[in-house]
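Notes to self after the Tuesday call (sharing in case useful).
The group wants a holo model before anyone commits to mutagenesis around the pocket. I volunteered. Ligand is calcium ion. Logging inputs and output together so the record is complete.
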Amino acid sequence: MTSLPASSRPSRPNLVFVMSDDHAAHAISAYGSRVNHTPNLDRLAAEGARLDAAFCTNSICSPSRATILTGTYSHVNGVPSIYSEFDYRLPTFPECLQRSGYATALFGKWHLGHGPASNPRGFDDWKVFPDQGDYTDPLMLSEAGEEIVPGYATDVITDLSLDWLSRQDPDQPFCLLVHHKAPHRPWVPDEKHRDLYPVGSIPEPDTLFDDYATRSRAAREARMTIADDLNEEDVKERLPDHLRGEENRVERTRWMYQRYMRDYLQCIQSIDDNVGRLLDHLDEHGLADNTVVVYTSDQGFFLGDHGWYDKRFIYDESLQMPLLVRWPAEVPAGSCPDEIVTNVDFAGTFLDLCGLDAAEVLPDSQGRSFRGLLRGEVPGDWPQSMYYRYWEHDDPSHHAWAHYGVRTRSHKLVHYYADGLGTPGSSDRSQEPEWEMFDLVADPRELNNVADDPAHAEERAALERELARLQSHYRDEPYTG
Ligand code: CA
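Result:
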């Protein structure tokens, strides 16, 4: 692509894309959180749009990141699991923006592999953690090599971002990716937040003691339970002897839940503080009006919901991404679009907002720009369903089984297809294929699997057809053993 001379370009907005890691929408007060307060994220929602049906298409870290960069599903971009490395078989939206004249930078978590083949590309400046990174005095990699950057990771990433912003040419549009490590496990908060959300004060979710009755074996066998799969390192305290054993499971769950959530929410408080620093910087430098600010997380997270931590499943707490978008020039303040969008749509939307046509510069992208939704317009042919596939079958530490499914505005159909290949290290070959179906209007918590209920047979048949249509549309092949 050739760059247009600056004089012939219309004024293009800047883009600041802030992505945290494992931050569930229901831990943001603008989304109705019962467990914490996030005043700076709330400010973003009040001044822009809060998207209420933003979903990831594969609820795990590296795959969501590859999807966001390329606008494609995991089977197209080659990153179906955290064991995959990004290989640039497809271009990314930052590369497109850089080629079209944007100044570009990335700071924080990358998690798409390292080395010449997988390092960040399309950025004038980048500094990232190796793999997951550390919360305290993190080691960071850049073109110049490795160095330890003293400080708390969430502050460090913001410091690097603000420093880069302050060095930019005011006449050149910029695209800045701010990728936080928090609030990913192992949940190490900043000392200054150690008194927030004390043990005993955090409300429990309705489904903390879910017994998985009516659900698949996949749900019953996942090793993501608050009671038995969080360890003492996670909660930084030795489990008292009187809470051990099956007979003490309820009390142990409560004890673990309070400690897990305390640390998780404290980590989020640093995210919120630092989003505030970023917004203040934009205000102080006169950049707020012409900068699109996006806040999201690579996926959702279980906050004790269904008795779990972690993600991976298509259940809504894991499927939903928080998505806040502020751009005073186009996005009405305090709006709440509720049409379905996915992380496959992000790249094309960002390019559209920045004056590029994804069909031209990202020809393999599978998403659709939701710029119209942000303006309050709903195209008559906007999709009424989304396709999901989780590939990392039987991961040895979480034991979540591969599945695919479809979510509409009112229903969900899920197929655990019993992938016989498995993830390296997996052991279970014995499961049979299973289905789950939920009526999300009658049963928003997804507790009552109606897949085999004759009263829902017609709806299930329609969902199966829609699932097949989406697999064909996205050129994904169903698993056939
Ligand atoms: Ca993640």
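Two things stood out.
Confidence is low (pLDDT under 50) at residues 4-9.
Residues 21-22, 61, 184, 298-299 surround calcium ion (CB under 6 Å).
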